[in-house]
Amino acid sequence: MATMYDNYGGARANAWRDAPLRWSARFLVAISWFSAALFGAYILAYYGGAIHAGAPQRWNETLPRLYEAATPLATLAIGAHFATGGILLLLGPIQLIGAIRRRVPAVHRWLGRLYVLAAAIAGTGGLTFIATKGTVGGAPMDLGFGLYGLLMVIAAAQTYRHARARRIEVHRGWAIRLFALAIGSWLYRMEYGFWFLAVGKTGHASDFTGWLDMVMAFFFYLPNLAVAELFIRARRTASVPARGLAAVVLFAATAFLTLATWVFANNFWLPGIRTGIGGA
C-alpha cells in the first residue's frame, strides 16, 4: 500500500512539475498554428494571386528584385520557395500535436512526408535563387539566407532519416528544429514590422544593406533555433529550474506572437489575402 501511495504521489509531483512546460508549449503551438496558418494563406493568396493575375512584378512590393523577367530560373526557384513555404506554415503545427500522433499515426506519417518534402523544396528553391541571382542585400544577406536554406535542407533530411530508423525521440527533436526554421519567413516580416513601429527605419536601407538588414539576415532564424534547443533539452531533463526557464521563455514567446498576429493580421495579412484573391 505504501509503495502504491508513494508511486501515486510521485506521479502527481511529476505532473505538477511538468505542467508549466507542457502548457506553455501547448499555448505556443496554438498561437503559432493560428498565426502561421493565416500567414501561409496570405503567402499563397498574395503571391499566387499575383501569378494568376499575370502580374508577378507585384512580388517586388514586399522585397525588391524577387521577380525579374530576365532571370526565369530564379523566379521559378523563389516561386517554389513561396509555395512550399505556405504549405510548411499550414501543416507544421499539426505535426506537433501529440493527440494526432497517437490516435491517427498514419495521418501524422503522411503529412510528415509532405512536410519534409516541402521543406526540402523550400530550402533548395531559396538556395537556387541565391546561386543564380543573389539577394538584394548582397554578400551578408546571401550568407545569412544561404545558411538558412542549408539548415532547412539538413533539418528536413534528418527529420526523415530518424523517423525511418524509428529513432522517435531524435526524430522529434529534429522535427522541432525544422518547425523553428520553417516559421522564419513569417517572423522575418513581423520582426521588421515591430522594429519599424518602435524606432522607424533606423538601420534599414532600401537596398537592404543597412546594419539592421545585416543583423536580420541571421536573426530571423537563429533565435528560433536557440528556443527550440532550450525546449528539446528541457524535455529531457528532470531539473525544475531548467524546465521552469524553458516554460517562461515559451510563455513570453506566446505573448509576443499573440500581439504580433493581431497587428499584422489587421494591417497586412488580411488585406493581402483579399488583394490576392481579388487579383487587384
Q: Can you characterise this structure?
A:
- The protein is globular.
- The protein contains 10 helices and no strands.
- The longest helix is centred in the first third of the chain and has 51 residues, at 2-52.
- By secondary structure, the chain is mostly helical.
- The termini are far apart.
SSE layout and pairings?
Layout: H1 2-52, H2 72-95, H3 98-103, H4 105-132, H5 139-164, H6 168-182, H7 184-199, H8 211-219, H9 222-235, H10 240-278
Helix pairs in contact: 1-2, 1-10, 2-4, 4-5, 5-6, 5-8, 6-9, 9-10
Summarize the structure.
With 280 residues, this protein is an all-alpha fold. The chain has helices at 2-52, 72-95, 98-103, 105-132, 139-164, 168-182, 184-199, 211-219, 222-235, 240-278.
Descriptive tags:
mainly alpha; 10 helices; 280 residues
Average of the residue pLDDT scores: 82
* Helix/strand order: HHHHHHHHHH
Total strand segments: 0
- Label the overall shape: globular
The helix/strand class is: mainly alpha
Unreliable stretches covering 5 or more consecutive residues? 1-13
Give the strand content.
Answer: under 5%
Instruction: Write down the Rg.
Output: 20 Å
Measured between the Cα atoms of the first and last residue, the distance is 73 Å
Number of helices: 10
Report the biggest beta sheet as strand number plus sense, adding barrel if it closes.
none
